[in-house]
Specification:
- It is globular and about 40 Å long.
- It has 127 residues and is mainly beta.
- Strands 2, 4, 5, 6, 9, 10 and 11 form a seven-stranded mixed β-sheet that branches. It has a four-stranded antiparallel β-sheet with strand order 1-3-8-7, with no helix packed on it.
- It contains no helices and eleven strands.
- A hairpin with a 4-residue loop joins strand 7 and strand 8.
């Protein structure tokens, strides 16, 4: 059974930092791409960042230069380091694993077809 579990969310002030963690089990971690999506109240879910099996990364424009995605395949973790946080980063952040995703092109639009989703972790940035 595949499990994807996020942690690390919380409340932070504008300009602060958080590191989200995601552990995926029940699958061949080295063979999947991992991505972070987020959804704010009243807004559509949007892609944040993606890292493929070769550790090639992609970022959505709003987070480029501020967020960094990394993976630790030995321990089955993916991380999202978030710096210079803004109130508009406030959202529920979801981790997702997919066996087919390459993190290229319009990966951020492929949320509906990605395979294994976690339950989310809340990030709130106060102004």
């Amino acid at each position: 059974q595949v499990q994807v579990v996020e942690s690390g969310g919380g409340l932070v002030q504008t300009g602060g930092s958080l590191r989200l963690s995601c552990k995926a089990s029940g699958l061949s971690f080295a063979d999947v791409a991992m991505a972070w999506f987020r959804q704010a109240p009243g807004k559509e879910r949007e892609g944040v960042s993606c890292i493929n099996r070769k550790s090639t990364t992609s970022y959505a424009d709003p987070v480029k230069g501020r967020f960094t995605i990394t993976r630790d395949s030995a321990n089955r973790f993916v991380y999202l380091q978030m710096n210079e946080l803004k109130p508009e980063d406030t959202a529920m952040y979801y981790c997702v694993a997919d066996e087919w995703e390459t993190c290229s092109g319009s990966w951020y639009r492929r949320g509906p077809v990605l395979q294994y989703w976690g339950q989310g972790t809340q990030v709130t940035v106060s102004s």
